[in-house]
Specification:
6-stranded mixed β-sheet; D-Maltodextrin-Binding Protein, domain 2; alpha/beta; 25% strand; elongated
Length: 294
């Protein structure tokens, strides 16, 4: 038995589907089925019960899963330690970046340190919305993602970089209208829509639910600099990161709508089974250094 079979066993158990596991592992479905069959033959155990659309762990499979995960983690520790002794990390790293201001995300300092520390590592930046980043991470289309998240989805680990507060903002010329407006009055004003399933939408929904506001949403905006531009232009009320909103407030572009706010995190997310892979460790270490310096 080899480490590939262990990784295949764990991935199939997590997805409950051979096809999806094959996509995540970047191999063919027959290859996954063959590795499982060979593993069962070598162990003399049936690990999965198969149906037309899914696979389910048997009692033996359930008993061995945790041990397989520990074995894979130990293998990762071994490889990371061995490569660290040479100070050499190579290969490809696909890093997702959420659609926020790159200077706030400190992407420049991060890449500068990564390039200096890991000159043989080829880095591919993928900028996208939160829903796409989550899907791509779970499908192994990207290796890790810097994004806005309150907690780590199942199967992922999270390194919190910075807490973020978001505020409701309105055009500066609406100051008198929103200063003492009740929830019903605010509901009748134009609002900017947030991208479905995004962190912005989650935060806005929380604020609106607690405040009892049911807005008339008009234009959809999915980038914070675009939201700032639209609010400043008088299009409607929007949700904005507090630090960016304070800058726009000082520039006379907008006003805060009451004290309505919600908090979340800027974080690095990555698959938990890849916790000890050298490239993931390099990104994690570089981010911690960059944000400590900040």
């Amino acid at each position: 038995m080899d480490i590939r079979q262990l990784r295949t066993f764990i991935t199939v158990a997590r997805f409950g589907n051979v096809t999806r596991a094959a996509d995540a592992l970047h191999v063919t479905q027959p290859a996954v089925s063959g590795q499982l069959r060979q593993m069962e033959e070598e162990l003399g155990l049936q690990l999965f019960t198969r149906t037309k659309s899914s696979v389910v762990l048997t009692q033996c499979g359930q008993a061995l899963l945790a041990r397989a995960e520990k074995a894979l983690e130990a293998f990762g520790d071994f490889m990371h330690a061995a490569k660290a002794m040479h100070g050499h990390i190579e290969g490809n790293l696909s890093l997702g970046i959420v659609m926020l201001d790159p200077s706030m995300l400190r992407v420049g300092p991060l890449l500068q340190r990564l390039v200096q520390q890991c000159p043989a590592l080829r880095i591919d930046l993928q900028v996208g919305r939160t829903p796409w980043l989550l899907t791509a991470l779970q499908a192994s289309e990207i290796d890790a993602a810097i994004m806005v998240a309150r907690s780590a989805p199942r199967g992922t680990s999270m390194l919190v970089l910075k807490p973020l507060t978001f505020r409701l903002v309105a055009p500066a010329e609406w100051a008198a209208r929103v200063a003492s407006a009740a929830p019903l009055e605010l509901s009748r004003m134009p609002w900017l829509r947030m991208t479905p399933r995004s962190a912005h939408q989650e935060l806005l929904t929380e604020i609106l639910t607690h405040a009892g506001i049911a807005p008339v949403e008009t234009v959809l905006a999915d980038h914070e600099l675009m939201i700032r531009e639209l609010v400043a232009a008088g299009v409607g009320i929007g949700l904005m990161r507090e630090n960016l909103a304070l800058t726009a407030l000082a520039a006379g572009e907008l006003v805060f709508v009451g004290d309505y706010s919600a908090t979340t995190n800027l974080a690095l997310l990555y698959p938990e089974e890849r916790e000890n892979e050298p490239a993931i460790c390099a990104v994690r270490d570089a981010l911690q250094h960059v944000w400590q310096q900040a």
